[in-house]
Every structure is written in structure tokens, then in C-alpha cells.
């Protein structure tokens, strides 16, 4: 089993347990359920910098990155830095995140929030909405075409943006469909952890114009962004590069300042 298989196996158990404990009706009763969502796709198309800054405590590839800071201070720092949106990892077992992190980020800032999760069931999309997300991530490597279609429809009914993540041509072909707002190319192979910006560069020409292009993972310098912009990318998801510092907000501020 590769790491992605392990994450999905754990996620199936987790979702089944949660469904048995917290009914959908309870999630739908959340005061956040009917709030107006903010479109990340729109923010990215209007931005010249396009940074989506991530809250990431640890990861399977890097182990501990930063366990010390509160989500509140990281979120405030990212907002002040001028990030277009914030990605909040909510997986507990492999990333040390939680839905409470999402809730805290929502209470702290007014920018689009991405629930960064391994979504395999519409229940998790309803959870995302109830905890204040504006965007959900769908990972093509763990979903078939029909699942992508159904999960996208659920997200759209809840007025959430959809960021569809691919890593190769085959995943891209099965993912191109109405309702997807942003196509994210993950530079990290989630099965081997190998990272290469060439993945974003080579897939860019295959992504139809109507999708906002986002490059994800392994981005650590301005030069990389400038290059990716030449390939049509409008969004850049950055986690470790900010989170590994003592002050992710400050680090994002310096980064974004140099992009302007
Ligand atoms: O980051 C990992 O090790 C990882 C392993 C397995 C599945 C997903 C993983 N990461 C999720 C992400 O896609 C990244 O957190 C995100 O793109 C930011 O990447 P980075 O800037 O390299 O921290």
C-alpha cells in the first residue's frame, strides 16, 4: 500500500464513524451553513500574486513542520500578508489538522478558505460548508469520473468552489467537466513524494482556458512563480515554505511583497 492508499483506507473508516455519530441534519443546522461563500477562483483571476497560503503542521513527506503556532495567528498573518486565500488541512492522522482548525480560521479571517482534505464522500463536503469553508479540494488520484461528477454537483449546490487536483494527463482527462472552478496541478507525486515543477509546466497546455490554473506544492521562491505564470498559472498553493519559519505570516508578507 502506498501512502495515498493508506490515507484513503483510514478516511473511509473515519467518515463511516462520523456519519454514525453526527447526522447531516446537525451539520446543516450550523450557523455557518447559510453564510455567503467567497469565491477563491474569482479572487485569483483578479490578483497579480495569487498566493494560497496553507496551514500545515506536519505531513507524511516532511514529518513535523510547525506544531507551535495557533491557527488564529497563522490565519491573521496570511490575511495581512495579502494572500488570496488560505488552505486549512483538516486531516488529523497524517497532517495533525482538524475541522476545529477550519472553524478557528473562519472565525479569524474573511478570506476564502479551502478545506484541504481527502474527500471521498459528500458528507465531508457538507462538513466543509458547516465549518466555514468556501472551497473544497477533490483529488483525481483517489476518485473515479462519476465520483468527481457527483461530488462536484454537491459542492455547487452548497455554493462552494471546487479545486480539482491532478498529477498526470490521465487524471486530467477524466476530470475536465462542468462545475470545476480551478484545476490544480500537484507538483508532488502523492505516492512517491517526488516533487517537480515540471509537472505543472508540462500539463499546463492540456488545461482548457475556462479553468483557473493552480500550481500546488514544492514552491519556495519567486523565480518559480514567475516561471509558472508564463505557463498560465494564476494560483500558487504554498505550505511548507511559510509554515517551516517561526512566523508564517511574516514569511508570506515578504514573499508576496517581492511578487508585486
Ligand atoms: O505534503 C505531503 O507530504 C503530502 C503527502 C501525501 C498527500 C498529500 C500531501 N500534501 C498535501 C499537499 O498537497 C500540500 O500540502 C500542498 O500542496 C502544499 O505543499 P507544500 O508547499 O510543498 O507544503
Describe what this molecule looks like in 3D.
The chain is of the alpha/beta class and 260 residues long. It has a single domain, classed as Aldolase class I (TIM Barrel, Alpha-Beta Barrel), CATH 3.20.20.70. 43% of the residues lie in helices and 17% in strands. The protein contains twelve helices and ten strands. The strands form two sheets. It has an eight-stranded parallel β-barrel, surrounded by six helices. A two-stranded antiparallel sheet has the order 2-3. The longest helix has 19 residues. It is globular. The chain binds ligand LARABZUK. The site of the ligand O=C(O)c1ccccc1NCC(=O)[C@H](O)[C@H](O)COP(=O)(O)O has 20 residues, from strand 10 and helix 11.
Mean pLDDT: 97
User: Regions with pLDDT < 50 over 5+ consecutive residues?
Assistant: none
Q: Which strands sit side by side, in order, in the main sheet?
A: 1-4-5-6-7-8-9-10
* Bound ligand species: ligand LARABZUK
Outline: globular
How many structural domains does the protein architecture include? 1
Number of strands: 10
Strand content: 15-25%
Please give the CATH architecture.
Alpha-Beta Barrel
Number of helices: 12
Head-to-tail CA distance between termini: 43 Å
Order of helices and strands: HHHEEEHEHEHEHEHEHEHEHH
Q: Give the helix level as a range of percent.
A: 40-55%
Biggest sheet record:
8 strands, parallel, barrel
Indicate the CATH class: Alpha Beta
Secondary-structure-derived class: alpha/beta
CATH names the topology as TIM Barrel
Quaternary class:
single chain
CATH superfamily: Aldolase class I
Radius of gyration (Å)? 17 Å
Pathway: Amino-acid biosynthesis; L-tryptophan biosynthesis; L-tryptophan from chorismate: step 4/5
Keywords: Amino-acid biosynthesis, Aromatic amino acid biosynthesis, Decarboxylase, Lyase, Tryptophan biosynthesis
GO biological process, one term: L-tryptophan biosynthetic process
EC number: 4.1.1.48
Amino acid at each position: 500500500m502506498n501512502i495515498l492508499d493508506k490515507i484513503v483506507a483510514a478516511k473511509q473508516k473515519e467518515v463511516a464513524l462520523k456519519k454514525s455519530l453526527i447526522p447531516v441534519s446537525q451539520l446543516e443546522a450550523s450557523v455557518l451553513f447559510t453564510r455567503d461563500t467567497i469565491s477563491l477562483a474569482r479572487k485569483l483571476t483578479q490578483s497579480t500574486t495569487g498566493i494560497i497560503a496553507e496551514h500545515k503542521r506536519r505531513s507524511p513527506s516532511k514529518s513535523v513542520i510547525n506544531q507551535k503556532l495557533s491557527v488564529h495567528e497563522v490565519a491573521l498573518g496570511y490575511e495581512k500578508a495579502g494572500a488570496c486565500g488560505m488552505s486549512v488541512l483538516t486531516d488529523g492522522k497524517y497532517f495533525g489538522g482538524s475541522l476545529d482548525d477550519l472553524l478557528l480560521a473562519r472565525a479569524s479571517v474573511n478570506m476564502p478558505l479551502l478545506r484541504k482534505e481527502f474527500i471521498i464522500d459528500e458528507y465531508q463536503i457538507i462538513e466543509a460548508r458547516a465549518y466555514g469553508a468556501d472551497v473544497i479540494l477533490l483529488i483525481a488520484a483517489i476518485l473515479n469520473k462519476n465520483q468527481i461528477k457527483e461530488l462536484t454537483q454537491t459542492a455547487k449546490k452548497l455554493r462552494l468552489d471546487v479545486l480539482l487536483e491532478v498529477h498526470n494527463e490521465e487524471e486530467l482527462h477524466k476530470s475536465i467537466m462542468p462545475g470545476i472552478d480551478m484545476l490544480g496541478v500537484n507538483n508532488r507525486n502523492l505516492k512517491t513524494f517526488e516533487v517537480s515543477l515540471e509537472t505543472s509546466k508540462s500539463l499546463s497546455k492540456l488545461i482548457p482556458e475556462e479553468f483557473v490554473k493552480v500550481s500546488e506544492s514544492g514552491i519556495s521562491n519567486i523565480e518559480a512563480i514567475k516561471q509558472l505564470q508564463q505557463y498560465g498559472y494564476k494560483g500558487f498553493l504554498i505550505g511548507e515554505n511559510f509554515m517551516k519559519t517561526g512566523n508564517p505570516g511574516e514569511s508570506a508578507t515578504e514573499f508576496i511583497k517581492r511578487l508585486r
